[in-house]
Each structure stands twice: as C-alpha cells, then as structure tokens.
Amino acid sequence: MLKILLFFTLLIPNQAYSTLDLREIPRVHNITKDEFLRDYFKPQKPVVIENFIEDWPAYSKWNLEYMKKVAGEKTVPLYDDRPVDHKEGFNEPHAKMKMKDYISLLQREPTKYRIFLWNVIKEVPELQQDFRFPDFGISLMKGLPMLFFGGQNSHTFMHYDIDLANIFHFHFAGKKECILFPQSENKYLYKVPHSLITHEAIDFSKPDLEQWPALRYAAGFKTQLNHGEVLYMPEGYWHYMKYLTPGFSMSLRAVARNPVNLSKALYNVFVMRYFDNGMRRLRGQKWIDWKNEQAIVRTKKVLKVTT
Predict the structure, then answer these.
(1) CA separation for the pair 255, 235 (Å, rounded)
(2) Beta-strand runs (E) in the chain
(3) Order of strands across the sheet with 219-225?
(4) Which end of the chain is more exposed for a tag (fewer CB within 10 A), N or C?
(5) 258, HSE (Cβ side, Cα atoms, 13 Å)
(6) What is the DSSP letter of 216?
(7) pLDDT tens for residues 30-75?
(8) Averaged over 152-178, what is the pLDDT?
(9) Angle at CA 209, nearest 5°, toward 204 and 210?
(10) Is the confidence at residue 90, as pLDDT, over 60?
C-alpha cells in the first residue's frame, strides 16, 4: 500500500512549486526598423530576433576561446548569488580574477561566478571591430556596450537596471534562460525598497508559491536565448537570467523615453544608490534585514487587497 501511495504522490504535481504565469516571448526571424518601432518599441513589448547579427564578425568569432585570447590578461570583477551584505557597496564585486583563468573555470566546472557590466570599449577596444550599433530607430548609448558572462546554472537575482533603459541583449555561446516582468507587476514581486531587486530568497526558476503567494498574480514572459539571438527588453523590465550552459552576452541600451521611467532613472542614479550606501554604513546589517522584511510586509498588504 505504501508503494502505491508513493507512486501516486509522484504523479501529482507539487502545487507549492507550480509554475509562474509566463508567456513565451514572441520570436521573429528578422525585423526592419519600422516593424520594430511599430510592433515592439511603441507598445513596449519584448521580442527575440533570431537572425539579426549573422553578418557581424562577432557571430562567427565570439566564443569563450576567442575571449580568452583577446582579453585573457584583463582582471575582471566577479559576482555570485550570495545575499547582499551591508559591508559591500552598491554593485561591489565579490572576487576578481584574470579573464583567462575565469574562462578556464567556466569550461572546467559549474561555478556561481558571473561577470556583470563589463565595458567592451573601455577594456578591450579591438572587440568593437566585431560588431556594430544597429539602427532600431532609437539612439543607442555608444559608450556603454556591456558584457556579461556566467557558468552553468549561475544566475542573477531578479532585478531591473538602474537607468530603466531599453535593452538589446545579444547572446553568444551556449544557452540562457530569461524571465521578464514589466514594471506594472512590481506589487506582486516582493520588491526590496531602496533597491533594484526582489527578495533574494526567491528562486525564480522554481519559485515556492506557498512561501511567495503573490507571485501567482504576476504576469510575465520567458524565453531561452541561443547563440546569435537578440532579446529586446523594454524600459525598466525586470529580468532574471540563468546560464543553462557557460556563455556570455552583450547589452546595448537606449535611454528611457517614458517621462515616468526617466524620472525614476534619475532618482536611482543620483539619489537612491547614495542613500542606500549611506544607510548601509549607518545601520549595517539591520538596514539590509529591514529592507528584506519590508519586501514581504508591503507585498502582503497588496495581496490582501487583491484577494
């Protein structure tokens, strides 16, 4: 009898770990400027463009071995998924390593270490010869092409960028899982106040909806990126990225056009991050703990109204 009960238990899905309300991000083979502006930029909808960069030298050249060759001697900042500590500054790296040693680590074994916001033009100018700034009909920030690297199963926290920019995320080498939410879903995501992240205990690849019930009401998007594909993330979109295999991506960005988002970006850059760093120095870990508690308290209040 016990074996029979165990068999049926395995057949029944665990409701606590049921899936989020995520739609597949639309995919197009290629796209014109007018199509992008009309169908995705103006309505602020995400899209994956599958074959947009096949004529870039980067499409055939950019892999881990090539990066090791051209940037191997550079010292790179590394981040992992440890909880935020009051002793760390805003976006302060957890470790540093030579690029060649880091890539060897990626190729050898799974690692939580990621490279985050690594400026291509500043660090390895010759890499700019391998790509171009595409004409999507909006002005891209030419000085801020950023690279991101990760090992197998490493992931970011769910977060949005400090400037709430329009982001074009070009993926190279391997496969990456992406989960997105628009700013309209903030109230259900356990957003940490005075911060750009959700509560750090949430595993968005397999969320416990009994522990985090408000997530049931959040409507988002998902996709998996392969080599050469481009993900457009509209202004201020939350994003969680998980490297299913070792790989790296490059982001190009355009300033937020929506006045509300632009004002939030200015506040984040010139007020919020300095206020948060000051409170970390003043109150220490109590400040971090208070923020995480408030993420739960505030979301519970919203949940009572919703239900």
Answers:
(1) 8
(2) 21-24, 27-28, 47-49, 75-78, 95-98, 114-119, 146-150, 166-172, 176-181, 219-225, 230-233, 238-243, 247-254
(3) 21-24, 219-225, 176-181, 238-243
(4) N
(5) 17
(6) G
(7) 999 999 999 999 999 999 999 999 999 999 999 999 999 999 999 9
(8) 96
(9) 145
(10) no
* Mean pLDDT calculated for residue range 267-272: 96
- The torsion angle over the Cα atoms of residues 73, 87, 180 and 40, rounded to 10 degrees, is -70
Rounded to 5 degrees, φ, ψ at 153 are 70, 5
- Token pair 């050249």 in the structure block, residue: 61
pLDDT in tens, 10-23: 344 444 445 899 99
Give the pLDDT band of residue 85 (cuts 50, 70, 90): low
Domain parsing of the chain, residue ranges:
17-306
Q: Which of 83, 82, 86 is nearest to 286 (CA)?
A: 86
DSSP character at residue 39: I
Q: What angle do CA 34, 252, 37 make, to 5 degrees?
A: 15
CA dist 272 and 291 (Å) reads: 13
* Tokens representing residue 266 in the block: 């200015």
CA-to-CA separations, 264 to 21, 157, 237, 258, in angstroms, rounded: 27, 20, 13, 10
Cα→Cα distances 268→83, 111, 142, 167, 273, Å: 21, 31, 21, 17, 6
One-letter amino acid of 264? K
Pick the CATH number of 17-306 from 3.40.50.2000, 3.90.1150.10, 2.60.120.650, 3.40.50.620: 2.60.120.650
Q: Retrieve residue 193's tokens.
A: 């106040």
The torsion angles phi and psi of 238, rounded to 5 degrees, stand at: -65, 145
Task: Flag whether the pTM goes above 0.85.
Answer: yes
**How many residues can be counted in the chain?**
307
Cα–Cα distance, 27 to 29 (Å, whole number): 7
